[in-house]
Amino acid sequence: MRIVVAIVAIICAACPALAFKAHIISLHARPSNASPSKLLSAPPNPFRAAMPPALPAKDEEDLTSKITTYLNTVDPNSCQTPLNNLKTLLRITVPSVVAAVGAFFAFPYLALSLAAAVNNAGVFAVLSQDSSQFVQNFLTVTGLLFSILVGQTYYFMYQQQEAVYLSLFNEVTEAKSLLEQTTLIAGSRPIYPKILAYINSYINNDLRQLNSPPSRLLARRPDKDPLESIMFVTSVGVPSSLYETVRTLRQARAGRLGSMQRKLPSSHIFLLQILAFIELLSFPLLGAGTQTIGGYNILTVEGYLFAVMTFGIVLTLRTIMELWNMKGAYNVEGVMKVMVSGLEEELKERMDGCRKLPGPDDGKEWYDVE
After folding, report:
1. Across the chain, where does the E strand assignment appear?
2. Which residues are within 8 A (CB) of 99 and not within 5 positions of it... i.e. 6 or more apart?
3. Is 297 helix (H, G, I), strand (E, B) or coil?
4. pLDDT for residue 127
5. Which of 117, 227, 268, 289 has the fewest CB atoms within 10 Å, counting from its CB?
6. Which of 254, 62, 42, 40 is nearest to 163 (CA)?
7. How does pLDDT run across 42-57, given as a tens digit for each residue?
8. Strands 356-358 and 365-367, how do they pair?
């Protein structure tokens, strides 16, 4: 016993000495350029674990810039960015998931509350067995009305989306035609820079104003219309040869504004939500009858099904609202940006006098604006 106590005492006495020796060795192993004050001020704790090196600030900035670049990269096929798709998914799925979770936890409470309010064996028998098929007919009628109205609304919204794309392609094509004819007709005239300025104003203040109310854009005074200004500076007494192109461009603009005008009122969306609420309200009523057969366990199973159905209905309504508002992935701003980019680049080059056109037969080149 004395031998064991002696060994323990020797180990306890040797540990501080070994620790101090290791600390001295580590101090001598440090770089020679370290100041003595820093070496002495370091806490003598040789058992402290070394901290992992922090991520350089440059790497963090590079990672952030890569994520930002990826989210704002335009897909060449859909002309949409991942950021717009992400916003649409969040606006659609998050409310749907929240509604589904709330429906799952609220279903047993609603069913038991209705059962406590009714508290009649005959009513429970009818609800649980549905002998009169009244509840089944009620669900059929409400589901049919909701599906018809939702289907027609979605089809109408998608048709409007298609009309917007067709009108945009038509209008941008006519705008390019106007720019080309302006160069051929007025390229050597003093009014050429002014016409290019009017076309630039039309692109920035009219064509690209997708979020402005279409009726307000069309209701502007003629003296504030760039296309009217082009007609004014190019026509002396009689309409110029640009008249037909400007008239066609105005018709294309009218088609674009008409297709982008919101046609369904907000009350239509409100009626859809009322029908969805009526359809969902019938299921807690059925749960009040079935709880007499299976108890709370059957309400839990029905709660799962009720949550899934709530998720689907809210998902459908949110998709229709996204189409109705023309936001996120259903926005045409990305397509417009891609379509107008070539027109804006060509217009800028001509306004700066840097665009070269094929010269005469001798092979020389000449500039639009000297």
Report:
1. 356-358, 365-367
2. 310, 311, 314
3. helix
4. 65
5. 117
6. 254
7. 444 444 444 455 556 5
8. antiparallel
DSSP string, 124-183: HHHHHH-TT-HHHHHHHHHHHHHHHHHHHHHHHHHHHHHHHHHHHHHHHHHHHHHHHHHH
Q: How far apart are CA 271 and CA 70, in angstroms?
A: 39
Average pLDDT over residues 243-268: 88
Q: Which strand (E) or helix (H) includes residue 204?
A: none
Q: What's the average model confidence in pLDDT over 300-318? A: 91
| pLDDT given at position 17 | 47
Residue-level pLDDT at 302: 84
How high is the pLDDT of residue 55? 53
Amino acid making up residue 273 = Q
Phi and psi at 236, nearest 5°, equal -125, 100
Distances (CA, A) of 242 to 25, 35, 119: 90, 82, 81
Question: For 338-360, b where at least 16 C-beta lie within 10 A, e where not — what string?
Answer: ebbeebbeebeebbeeebeeeee
What's the token pair of residue 163?
């009309």
Tokens of 247: 């008239």
